[in-house]
């Protein structure tokens, strides 16, 4: 009976230590990612976090295990390279780690300049310009010629509105 109780206490202590380690790793990854985002917003493609203390959680979890768990988590984030180094600092009497990651810069093409939709030859002025569609008849002409027309110049239907352009896939 006593051994069973001791076994339960040991299992509970280990679970608590693993939970603490996982919480620290999760918080550290979020903190590190925020640092990476700050550097990326400056136009940089790497970040180094130095002198981060690794907590002593308990006898069941070593500093090596915590550092390895942290490295494994960072490896899943898609960095081009990632390093986790830990060392003992004799002045602080603590185990510290340095995290470094770099990422690929993704060039995004600039969006095409907005032209107000498709350009076509206006049937009135014969210029190639972005065209608008008259509603409800559907005839097209350039916005300059559309001006303040009250009726369609082609079918004489009253114009209720017009689009800002003609967009086709």
TrEMBL record:
<dbReference type="InterPro" id="IPR013083">
    <property type="entry name" value="Znf_RING/FYVE/PHD"/>
</dbReference>
<protein>
    <recommendedName>
        <fullName>RING-type domain-containing protein</fullName>
    </recommendedName>
</protein>
<dbReference type="Pfam" id="PF13920">
    <property type="entry name" value="zf-C3HC4_3"/>
</dbReference>
<keyword id="KW-0863">Zinc-finger</keyword>
<keyword id="KW-0479">Metal-binding</keyword>
<feature type="domain" description="RING-type">
    <location>
        <begin position="122"/>
        <end position="156"/>
    </location>
</feature>
<dbReference type="GO" id="GO:0008270">
    <property type="term" value="F:zinc ion binding"/>
</dbReference>
<keyword id="KW-0862">Zinc</keyword>
<dbReference type="InterPro" id="IPR001841">
    <property type="entry name" value="Znf_RING"/>
</dbReference>
